[in-house]
Amino acid sequence: MTNARVTNAEIGVIGGSGFYSFLEDVTEIQVDTPYGSPSDSLFLGEIAGRRVAFLPRHGRGHHLPPHRINYRANLWALRSVGVRQVLGPCAVGGLRPEYGPGTLLVPDQLVDRTKSRVQTFYDGYPLPDGSVPNVVHVALADPYCPEGRKAALSAARGRDWEPVDGGTLVVIEGPRFSTRAESRWHAAMGWSVVGMTGHPEAVLARELGLCYTTMTLVTDLDAGAETGEGVSHEEVLRVFAANVDRLRSVLFDAVAALPTGERDCLCTRALEGLDTGIRLP
Ligand SMILES: [Zn+2]
Predict the structure, then answer these.
(1) What average pLDDT does the chain have?
(2) What are the residue numbers of the active site?
(3) Taking a C-beta distance cutoff of 8 angstroms, is the pair 67, 113 a contact?
(4) Which residues are within 5 Å of ligand 1 (an ion), measured at CB?
(5) How far is the CA of 175 from the centre of ligand 1 (A)?
(6) Which residues contact 113 (CB under 8 A, 6 or more apart)?
(7) What pLDDT, in 10s, does the model give residues 43-65?
């Protein structure tokens, strides 16, 4: 099958280059947005008959730290090629001893502890086309797509990787890791895993009416949950590398398991009755 000239996609995957680099017939396209440039080109390909746009979150070569990623441009770019469902896997630290390295957790809740990130499209600043976003308040009580979560969980089970179903992802500003006190506090609040990129991806997806699901891979125990020297970057990379093939298989199965046709989940109704003031791509 040839899909060499495919320029649209229905599913977006925001993650590392390990997720698409081996796909055949990948089409690379550059997309500009009213909010600036995304982290990199979009790489369009096909998995199980589904058209997918891959976007390396940190850019190829991993040059963008979490706080400098243009999250708005990333989500806008995906939507502009037709994407309506997004999977955004990320590496995290475990906040409980039982969530050790290699744990796959599919969160159902999110806590924002970032400090400097723009987290809305509706900021009142005019777009290049002259339109001005209105003030829009979307519901985020349930930040993740229930259908996407189902697909992720069943995909993991199908690969004999029993996932943790539900939990709270707390997102910190980074790029530094947490202090021991911060980490113990996060754990004491009952939160499950800690990462640096899960926010504002989920809220921006919701603001565009996109389905968004994250799957978190625990690469280390966070400082408050272990007794050694604390997290090192090398440790994170080592565990991630050891699991990347496995995660890719689960991710691809999740892509195949996402609903087809008309979506019927809360994400699709996020903008119902709201006047955004701008034309979504
Ligand atoms: Zn949804």
Answers:
(1) 92
(2) 220, 222
(3) no
(4) 145, 211, 265, 267
(5) 30
(6) 170, 171, 172, 173
(7) 999 999 999 999 999 998 888 99
Q: How many Å lie between the centroid of ligand 1 and the Cα of residue 132? A: 27
Q: Please state, in angstroms and rounded to a whole number, the distance separating the CA atoms of residues 184 and 1.
A: 52
Beta strands per DSSP E along 57-157: 85-87, 90-94, 104-106, 109-113
Strand partners, 91: 217
- 205 CA distance to ligand 1 middle (Å): 10
Determine the distance separating the centroid of ligand 1 and the alpha carbon of 140, expressed in angstroms: 12
In the 8-state DSSP scheme, what is residue 141?
A: S
- Nearest residue to 255 via CA among 27, 87, 20: 87
pTM for this model (two decimals) = 0.93
pLDDT band, very low/low/confident/very high, at 2 (cuts 50, 70, 90) = very low
Quick check: 59 and 183 in contact, CB under 8 A? no
Q: How does pLDDT run across 228-240, given as a tens digit for each residue?
A: 666 677 877 787 7
Give domain 11-269's CATH architecture.
3-Layer(aba) Sandwich (3.40)
Q: How far is CA 220 from CA 43, 216, 230, 233, 246, in A?
A: 30, 12, 9, 10, 17
Closest CA to 53 of 91, 3, 92, 90: 3
Q: Provide the residue ranges of all domains of the chain, joining segments of one domain with +.
A: 11-269
147 CA distance to ligand 1 middle (Å): 6
Angle at 30 between CA 25 and CA 36, to 5 degrees: 150
